[in-house]
Amino acid sequence: MPYDDSPPPTRRARPLSVAAALAAVCLTAAGCGGGQEPGEAGAASPRPGGNAATSTDPTPTGKQPESAASASPSAKPLPKGPLTGRTVVIDPGHNPGNRDHTREINRQVDIGTGRKECDTTGTATNDGYAEARFTLDVSHRLRALLEAEGARVRLTHDADRPFGPCIDERARIGNEAKADAVVSVHADGSAVGNRGFHVILPAGVKGGGADTSKIVKSSADLGARIAGHFARTTGSAPSNYIGGNTGLDTRDDLGGLNLSTVPKVFVECGNMRDPKDAALLTSASWRQKAAQGLADGITSYLKG
Q1: Residue 302: how many other CB atoms lie within 10 Å
Q2: Residue predicted with more confidence, 281 or 48
Q3: Which of 111, 142, 129, 65 is nearest to 206 (CA)?
């Protein structure tokens, strides 16, 4: 099946109240998905019954979706807008080059409460569209939308390095930027029938170099607003197997969250291994909706 590569036009992000954002998450598929089944998307590391961050990335078997036209950062000065003076760090999950550097990404790094692999390859659709390419595409679209609102935007990487960065460095980039918000973009690799999105929030963690006590509340607010806008804009329902149909999940085993000192969430946009979700994830028009939902949620949080 040919992929839809056409980059649709962008629109400006709209703010939403906290109450409206939480309501938009909705606890039933009928309320969020417009008839779509609820679903699930990919986490950065394996969890029981959930994400499969595979150690090998399937070889592409067909034409790959191209990045949005907004992939290259603009050389023009940022416009004045509602996010002027704000800094957002976007963390595209994984790296297309990780598959060629398994030794390096398998190196253990400190996540504050233990040690974990530097990074993983991520998952892919059955047709070979890699999660790492999906996350970069959505991140490019999201950057363009946020910059149009006046935000300073930094990516943790732009496929401009052979592999990584490692999960501890990803957290450090957001911390050193003193970001007002950090969003890590992912997609899941779960079982067929597991559908939809979920937003991963940091748990209260304190140990080693990790202390999330100052960001748990603000990250939960950021995540709830993103979940509400993402559901409304994409038409996707919350995960039907993680988060109890709320679209929200709290974890204490992700170094990117444990080591963050600024508000941060992971967004799992869909399940690449489910054919129905994969059809959305490989569609340029849906990826634009996903980026818009993320931008709207971030804007709502920063203006709240």
Answers
A1: 23
A2: 281
A3: 111
Cα four-point dihedral sign 56, 97, 198, 117: positive
- C-beta of residue 98 within 8 angstroms of C-beta of residue 92: no
Structure token digits, residue 101: 């550097």
**For residue 150, what pLDDT is reported?**
98
Residues in the chain, total: 304
> Coil, strand or helix: which one is 32?
helix
* pLDDT for residue 75: 53
Round to whole Å and give the CA distance between 296 and 273: 27
E runs forming strands in 137-219: 152-155, 181-188, 198-202, 206-207, 210-211
Report d(CA 158, CA 27) in Å as an integer: 35
The answer, as to whether pTM is greater than 0.85, is: no
Assess whether the previous peptide bond of 96 is cis (omega < 30° from 0): no
- Helices 284-303, 131-148: axis angle to 10 degrees equals 50
* Whole-number Å distance between alpha carbons of 302 and 304: 6
First and final C-alpha spacing in the chain:
42
> C-alpha angle with apex 262: 139 to 54, nearest 5 degrees?
50
Asked if 220 and 73 touch (Cβ cutoff 8 Å), the reply is no
Closest CA to 138 of 196, 77, 183: 183
Residue 232: half-sphere exposure toward Cβ, Cα within 13 Å: 23
